[in-house]
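Q: A reviewer asked whether we had any structural model of the full assembly, not just the individual parts. We don't, so I'm hoping you can provide one. Inputs are below.
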Amino acid sequence: MQQRRPSSTGAAEGTATGAEALAAFRQRLAGRESLGRGVELALEHMIETGALQPGARLNEAELAAQLGVSRGPVREAARALERTGLVTVILNRGAFVRSIGLDEVMQTYELNAVLFGHAAALLAARLDPAQAAQLRATAAGMDDSVATGEREAFFSGNTLFHQQIVEFCGNRPLCDVYLGHTRKLLLLRRRSFDAAGNMRAANDEHHRLLAAILAGEAEQARRHAEAHTRAGRARYLAAIAHGEAAEDNKTPKGKKRHVGN
Amino acid sequence: MQQRRPSSTGAAEGTATGAEALAAFRQRLAGRESLGRGVELALEHMIETGALQPGARLNEAELAAQLGVSRGPVREAARALERTGLVTVILNRGAFVRSIGLDEVMQTYELNAVLFGHAAALLAARLDPAQAAQLRATAAGMDDSVATGEREAFFSGNTLFHQQIVEFCGNRPLCDVYLGHTRKLLLLRRRSFDAAGNMRAANDEHHRLLAAILAGEAEQARRHAEAHTRAGRARYLAAIAHGEAAEDNKTPKGKKRHVGN
DNA sequence: GGTCTGCGGAATGTAAACAATAAACACGGT
DNA sequence: ACCGTGTTTATTGTTTACATTCCGCAGACC
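A: Here is a predicted structure for the entire assembly that you could use as a starting point for your response.
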């Protein structure tokens, strides 16, 4: 079946990997969320694992068949992902996995620095003992990960640490925005992220930040949090500097398009 | 036709006001956006004008008939509004216009203060002459509005002023988040807003902020911008203090539900 | 009298069918 | 040989139809 359209889903043939992923997500949602939501998670998973690479188009019919659902939920999921910032949809052309430009990465880091800094400042002024204990536990776990060199464990600990700080800060909108943008970066630039390691430095920064929060020093906490985010940005830059090609364009707008496969 | 479900759209009978609104939006979009997008704008308009009040349920079939489209685009619009934060959808129960609690309003103001402050700081360091001219023009227009006492003109000038600052700051994600949250507040708490006037004070704050930006004083601009937002919050609080009942609950979750109309 | 169970109906969730759009191919003119 | 135009076809946008879920009420049972 030759196809005239530029690029297809990519992981089309053979792999029914999406279907089982959807099943898993749907079970995890336990019927408390709609099917479209499950498809959304499945698509996120496919983006995360690279089954859907930046620039790829989300063929509704194909994905629907692959996931064993109708086009409706797929459409719904695609629009949801658009709001999340993971895909771009063009009228009558479909949804494309975004490839986020370096400038946008920088701007997002900048935004996250401000948000994270403010969260830390807020938290320093309202921390309760239970939260303090949780933060300490998370930090301790990361110390272990650093000692044993477990990158994956450190990575999830790092995510949890940041998540706890913004959640504990008490400002829900801020928390949502921060986590959303962080997730976006994670999903669209994943490979660069785990290469950006340097756990030790990050861990030290965490401890300094945590100390300021525990001490109730709001402004100091803000500075440490901002600095930590900016340091993370620097590590990211260093990682991609020699690691891989810097950038691709944002959206298949004019003629140029991704090679697909 | 008696209806068992708690509340209906409210503006159901007679008024085909939604249909013409949709037609207008669809023409404005000029076929460059999907129908669902037009419905989304129409629904926003209905929320803004109060045709859909907080707590009201969005009956898909009813709205579809009213707007002269099918349920599909209505669903799509409802989900879009959910991500915008204007409605809450509950599985198998439908979409409800959110009634945003006072605590969330406060948190959103807090977030906006930080974002607006940072935007001002960024802008102070990168302002170009053309942008400076535009900001001056906007400020001048608001001066006129204050002088003549035109509340509506001042209101739109105010919106434009804030919008220009965040757009000129160069950080797109920040801009999007700020404008989105501001819009949310505007649509869900509109009546309180235009009562919160006190144009003169706000105008003075604008001038102080603009002066700092034009002078390139980043940190001072940040302080002024944050202070301005917090002052706006204070004005808002003062306005609702004696104006109207403070709050209702966020979402029709358990048994309690809005009276409808 | 109160509580629980079963029925009825309306509205949402999902799937399938129809219509419209845009890209790729093929042809003909210049 | 190149460019423009007409045609074809896949794919999305939209409508319609079907399945499922949940709420409210009535009657029976305790």
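A: Points you may want to mention in the reply: Residues 73 and 217 of chain B are 48 Å apart (CA to CA). Chain B has two domains: 17-97, 102-243.
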